[in-house]
Amino acid sequence: MTSSNISLTQFLIEEQRAGRVNPQLRLLIEVVSRACKRISIAVGKGALGGVLGDAGEGGQANINVQGEAQKKLDVLSNEILLEANAWGGHLAGLASEEMDTSQPIPDKYPRGNYLLLFDPLDGSSNIDVNVSVGTIFSVLRCPEGVTSPTDADFLQPGTAQVAAGYCVYGPQTTLVLTVGHGTHAFTLDREAGSFVLTTRGMTIPQETREFAVNMSNQRFWEAPMQAYIGDLLKGSEGPRGKDFNMRWIASMVADVHRILTRGGLFSYPLDSKCAAKGGKLRLMYEANPMSFLVEQAGGAASTGRMRMLEVTPSGLHMRVPVFMGSKAEVDAAVGYHQAHD
Ligand code: AHG
Ligand code: MN
Ligand code: MN
Ligand code: MN
């Protein structure tokens, strides 16, 4: 990574001068980045801050709309993002993995032109074991003439995103951002309290020898996925003619960050356990923002059967199968699906 003296604030002002962001979108990104700093501080305190473990009272875990037990940090991160974004005048509404429905901005505050969607804390299963977690966000335009958006106003394909990003809380806290002109990484200078541009224009190598998937689900996968991974595992003696390495952190943010940094293929495919829901990962909070970032870095993202960013959302919490990363490898995975369908 090449370091610079360019803060996120300076970067966004330069993007505004170049006509790539307007003042409202710039404020939105600044506000989200400030919320991520607060989440980073909470994550960093761990047991000392009393933030580990499940949310809920009397030994009874809170179950969110996804059917998952909420962690304390899921709830806290959601509250930090809601509170930070309520009053700035840049948003018309918000939607979150942790909330049943979308929320319009309260009447007491001015409303802006954008809709914000987020996965406040990604990789919840890793919080208590001190492994990287993250925040993912996606920005859409509020439809013309709508002042109090409902869920239906959020149901836009990923191609309609005007910005997307994630913040990974790992050994370093890194914010990765796109406004549709490349994918850029900013590392948090913890002493100064500001994000500093560390990679302008991340690029994913087209070819790879590395894949990320939860192999324990292998027997539940569809036939094309069985065939695809089966051939990867045959290595240099199989049809792919090369040996592959595997990594699985189980935090999408951390797995995709590795792929944006050095290439690879990330997949959470359809399996018979999640088939009724359409997949495991959520289109609006996980797949779409990550696909936008990956495409902007020269990679590809697909459901296995179509380009992710062209999926028409059927609901706020819609789930999809996911393949993303190095373009040649995503194309190979899609090829196995085409051959089987
Ligand atoms: P979240 O913590 O926001 O609910 O998302 C968890 C997701 C994703 O981060 C990760 O890739 C996947 O779940 C891990 O799934 P497994 O537990 O099946 O490995
Ligand atoms: Mn969750
Ligand atoms: Mn997630
Ligand atoms: Mn989450």
TrEMBL record:
This is Fructose-1,6-bisphosphatase class 1. Mg(2+) 2 binds at residues 119, 122, 286. Mg(2+) 1 binds at residues 97, 119, 121. It is found in: Cytoplasm. SUPFAM superfamilies: Carbohydrate phosphatase (SSF56655). GO terms for molecular function: fructose 1,6-bisphosphate 1-phosphatase activity. Belongs to the FBPase class 1 family. Residues 204-336 form the Fructose-1-6-bisphosphatase class 1 C-terminal domain. Residues 7-199 form the Fructose-1-6-bisphosphatase class I N-terminal domain. InterPro entries: FBPase_C_dom, FBPase_class-1, FBPase_N, FBPtase. Pathway: Carbohydrate biosynthesis. Its cofactor is Mg(2+). Keywords: Carbohydrate metabolism, Cytoplasm, Hydrolase, Magnesium, Metal-binding. It catalyses: beta-D-fructose 1,6-bisphosphate + H2O = beta-D-fructose 6-phosphate + phosphate. Homotetramer. Pfam families: FBPase (PF00316), FBPase_C (PF18913). Gene3D superfamilies: 3.40.190.80, Fructose-1,6-Bisphosphatase, subunit A, domain 1. Binds 2 magnesium ions per subunit. The lineage of its organism: Bacteria, Pseudomonadati, Pseudomonadota, Gammaproteobacteria, Lysobacterales. The gene is fbp. Its EC number is 3.1.3.11. Substrate binds at residues 122-125, 214, 280. Signal peptide: none annotated. The keyword Glycoprotein does not apply.
